[in-house]
Recover the amino acids of this structure.
């Protein structure tokens, strides 16, 4: 897609540091390197976000992740874990609207990656939890 920075990276109009490539998927180093090895995995097809994925695209994109994760683990023996993040829409911190999966290697609890999951479980009754789950189930296609 014209004016998409990641399409330009795929087409080599903008340089990048390649990590993995096949016919459908490209992975390259994120320019910010939140931690060493921070990588983005993207489909070669321009798809904006998770809401636009077809099953085949999800299959090809996500199926490459374990292979790259294991390669990182071998490349960086000091690596102790990995966060996998996929931001969708601006409110959820998506800033490039060509879908991508962040692989962020973790080296210590004090590194530069911060993620907070608030525990709001106490605010929901069992009935409300059932209704929430049912609302999602009813809309799966
Ligand atoms: P988002 O905020 O959409 O989840 O993530 C977009 C990511 O793309 C950011 O982490 C940002 O550093 C990265 N990024 C933006 N522009 C470029 C670029 O030109 N090259 C590379 N390698 N990464 C980029
Ligand atoms: Zn694109």
């Amino acid at each position: 897609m014209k004016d998409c920075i990641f399409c330009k990276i795929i087409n080599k109009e903008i340089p990048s540091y390649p990590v993995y490539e096949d016919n459908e998927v490209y992975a390259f180093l994120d320019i910010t390197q939140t931690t060493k090895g921070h990588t983005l995995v993207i489909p070669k097809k321009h798809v904006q976000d998770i809401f636009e994925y077809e099953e085949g695209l999800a299959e090809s994109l996500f199926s490459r992740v374990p292979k790259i994760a294991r390669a990182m683990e071998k490349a960086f023996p000091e690596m102790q874990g990995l966060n996998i993040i996929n931001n969708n829409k601006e409110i959820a911190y998506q800033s490039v609207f060509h879908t991508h999966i962040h692989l962020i290697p973790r080296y210590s609890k004090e590194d530069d990656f911060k993620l907070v999951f608030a525990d709001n479980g106490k605010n929901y009754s069992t009935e409300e939890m059932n209704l929430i789950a049912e609302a999602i189930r009813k809309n799966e296609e």
In short: Residues 5-111 form a domain with the HIT family, subunit A fold (CATH 3.30.428.10).
